[in-house]
Design goal:
This protein is α+β, with helices and mostly antiparallel strands and 117 residues long. The chain has helices spanning 36-48, 97-116; strands at residues 72-76, 92-96. Helix content is 28%, strand content 9%.
Length: 117
């Protein structure tokens, strides 16, 4: 049986130009997230929440997202940069991707506001 011919992607004729004034710094993973202690803490936090997001929606109900259909994040309630305990289960919560991102952005904004004010 003959295979159909493969299509090759052509390179763009015009080079892309990055015109951002401020470049986003490359993400560097904190070494704490690579330790066995962190992995144990993460599993405990996710298990305590039943591997379901604990965020409360505008309707007053708990978010319905859960594993395995959605990736869950073990989030520090008080971020490590703000002095939160790294392996205290009481400082952990299970969040879906969108709620984790929203919480992280809010914490960064609050931290920046404190630095500027």
């Amino acid at each position: 049986m003959n295979k159909p011919p493969r299509l090759h992607q052509l390179r763009p004729r015009v080079a892309t130009l990055d015109i951002r004034r401020v470049k986003t710094p490359e993400k560097i993973v904190d070494e704490i997230y690579l330790t066995p202690e962190y992995r144990r803490w993460r599993e405990q936090v996710l298990d305590l929440a039943g591997r379901r997001c604990v965020a409360i929606l505008d309707t007053g109900k708990r978010c319905w997202r859960r594993e395995p259909a959605y990736r869950m994040y073990a989030d520090h309630v008080i971020e490590l940069k703000d002095g939160g305990a790294p392996f205290d289960v009481a400082n952990g919560q299970c969040l879906c991707g969108s709620h984790h991102t929203s919480k992280t952005i809010a914490a960064r904004t609050a931290r920046q506001t404190l630095l500027q004010g």
